[in-house]
Amino acid sequence: MLFQRFLPIVFILSLAGCQTATDGLSTSAAPADVSGPAAGAIAGDMAARFAEQAGSTTPPIKLHKDTSEFAVALEAALKGWGFAMVTDDKSANAKDVSKPVELAYSILAADGQVLARLSTDTMELGRAYSVTNGVATPASPLSLMKRN
After folding, report:
1. Average of per-residue pLDDT values in the chain
2. Backbone angles phi, psi at 144, to 5 degrees
3. In the predicted model, what is the mean pLDDT of residues 34-60?
4. What pLDDT sits at residue 36?
5. Who has greater pLDDT, 29 or 102?
6. Average pLDDT for 40-52
7. Cα angle at 74 between 58 and 42, to 5 degrees?
8. Quick one: which of 63, 123, 122 has its CA closest to 89?
9. Residue 102: which of 80, 117, 87, 82 has the closest Cα?
10. How distant is the alpha carbon of residue 92 from its chain centre?
11. DSSP 76
12. Exposure of 27 by Cβ count < 10 A (0-12 exposed, 13-18 middle, 19+ buried)?
């Protein structure tokens, strides 16, 4: 019972401990055991929450390239929400004067759940998911941290 009361605090503190310096984001990573429909469900939910927080005036997003199913699903979900994606600074439209927003992600399997995090230099989103038989469902409220 006592552990259940402190679980949200531990989760938030674990996300706060993942902060990086303001001059760069951590490398994106996804474990191999988050794949298929679970990867798609987590990526879709996190992209929707990112879209809610980022708004519609976000410059292009620079996502670290990865071949994991989660990375592919996340890129597709972000495109579905209308975000322009770039793979490097040169691929941004030359007429577009806005600098791409770097988006890093991490997926961590812990204690029977999957912890997902999206980070930019101005905000971090995190959420825990339960994965059962390849299906992922949110297991916690969204954790949001905004930076100035």
Report:
1. 78
2. -125, 130
3. 89
4. 86
5. 102
6. 95
7. 115
8. 63
9. 87
10. 21
11. H
12. exposed
Residues 6+ apart with CB under 8 A from 143: 11, 12, 15, 124, 125, 126, 127
Two structure tokens written together for 2:
């006592």
Euclidean distance between the first and the last CA atom of the chain, given in angstroms as a whole number: 36
Alpha helices by DSSP H, listed for 17-131, are 36-54, 69-80
Rounded to two decimals, the pTM is 0.73
**In the chain, which residue ranges form alpha helices assigned H by DSSP?**
2-16, 36-54, 69-80
Residue 92 has pLDDT above 60, yes or no: no
For 61, the enclosing helix (H) or strand (E) is strand 61-63
Q: How far apart are CA 84 and CA 86, in angstroms?
A: 7
Q: What band does 23 get if pLDDT is binned at 50, 70 and 90?
A: very low
- Amino acid at site 56: S
Residue 142: both structure tokens together: 């969204």
Q: How many Cβ atoms sit within 10 Å of the Cβ of residue 12?
A: 14
Distance CA 86, CA 64 (A): 9
Contact call for residues 105 and 30 (beta carbons, < 8 A): yes
